[in-house]
Amino acid sequence: MLTATSSSGSGANSNPTPTTSTSSTETALPTPLPTFLNNQTVPSARGFLFQAWSGYNYTGNVTQVMTEEGFFDLTTNATTDPLGAVSYVWIPDKRLSCCITFCVNTTYAGGYWCQEKRQTRASGRFPRIWIGCGDAAHAEHACS
To answer: How far is it, in rounded angstroms, from Cα 112 to Cα 103?
Structure first.
């Protein structure tokens, strides 16, 4: 950033000598969310994180990294069609006491999980999840 320009001279035949000075302030940028949770080391201060894949062993189509509470129909960035996930990474925030419910459809739950889990082969496909934090999150939730 250019902050000042000055010139000085001491006579009719003198050539002015321009001078410039610059200053900058460094600001730490926030660390971006990892693109894929299955091969990343994630700082614990970030809150909970969830990401799912359509294929076993973290292959196929992938969802965005989810960081909010609520119901989510699992889709990819490229389509709004249900993903039907079979592998996932769930990294809960232990301070917030967060859990996730895996939904078979918009009516039935297939189970819930509260501890960190890196699942390469789920027992069945799940196209919808519910993520919540606090005491009420520690139970299987309805999926609608």
So the answer is: 9
Among the listed residues 96, 47, 106, the one whose alpha carbon sits nearest the alpha carbon of residue 74: 106
Terminal CA-CA length for the chain: 54
CATH, domain range 37-137:
2.60.20.10
Per-residue pLDDT tens digits for 55-83 = 999 998 888 888 999 999 887 655 666 67
The domain segmentation of the chain, as residue ranges, is 37-137
Q: Which phi and psi angles does 37 have, rounded to 5°? A: -75, -20
Burial class (CB in 10 A: 0-12, 13-18, 19+), 80: exposed
* Predicted confidence (pLDDT) per residue in 9-53, tens digit: 444 455 555 555 555 556 565 666 557 888 876 655 567 999 999
